[in-house]
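Journal club side-thread
Mid-discussion, someone asked how the predicted structure for our own chain would compare to the paper's figures. Pasting it here so we can look after the session.
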Amino acid sequence: MFVDHLSLSGFRSYESAEVPLGPGVTIFVGSNGQGKTNLVEAVEYLATLSSHRVSTDLPLVRSGESQAIVRARVQASADDERRLLLEIEVNAGRANRARINKAPLPRTSELAGVLRCVLFSPEDLAIVKGEPSDRRAFLDALVVSRWPRMAGVRSDYDKVLKQRNSLLKAMSGRSLRDVGGDAESTLEVWNEQLAGIGAELLAARLDTLADLMPRASRAYATIAPVRNEAGADYRSSLALPASEGQRADRAVLRELMVEAMAERRRDELARGVSLVGPHRDDVLFSIGTLPAKGYASHGESWSLALALRLGQFDLLRDDGISPVLVLDDVFAELDVTRRQRLADAVVDAEQVLVTAAVEEDIPDTLTHASGVRRYGVRDGSVAPLVTGEVAVDA
């Protein structure tokens, strides 16, 4: 799968832009702040309905505009000429709207996953060094990429969790003996719903992590020159049974969650918050025998973050659709050896979009790839670079 044309209107720094793309490597070169990341962010947003840079949609709309439009023509593969026209309309203060082949979708969320995209960026370091919420977000995004319907499951879980927390907060400080009647019945209802939805989300996470890590471990061994064994351990608020290579059993996980909520009820009532469920979980990534967080060097942490993205790419490709691969300003963060190993690992992807402030940071493997496209980005405008031409700093 690849994008063969990207069109922007009122998106970020772009009043408008028309960018021809295609399979193979495309490089965007420009000084920081000129708009090159905005281009690949648009592709990411069209694929996932989210951005790696901001948590809300408002910054995506150009200052002074009421809406932003991202439109892309997507081809199934180099060997399959079927095309789709995908469009997302980001409205300031109003609901967004999405279309496929100009036909409106009943729900914007139905656009997620039609185009698949894996994006590497400096923010990925948070997967290794950041908070548990960063690792949960990474894993949940991969779950949704594999199974788009899980976006609805994740949203339902958040809604039920919010309702349950509100009830617990209202009941906070009351003893078990004082809790009864309507409050007790209502809490049991939320318990059942949270356990059912939570078990589905947890099972999807466990299955995805089990599928991801062999691929990520191989990628880490390829990228890292030394101490190149990577692993992961899912840390749950439940006492999980040993999987022994089996798929996660949702019924078992649901019962474990119900039991754990009963055991923690006193603490939950005292604190007024839900203490059991996927929202409390973490993933412990390791290099060798040591946890990556707190022990890994900057280079090792970067290599692990990149390996996780490469593992994500391989997993989605093995699921049947080759994603668009985006490398957003990552080469400047790597030493020469890691740059080359990363380039060697991705050059055969169906479509690779690369951004860099300095083209010399990008290995020749990519800059001299067959059919490579090169664009200079300056002050919100995009123009092709001819062979040998250097992007001019703003």
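Post-session note: The chain has a mean pLDDT of 90.
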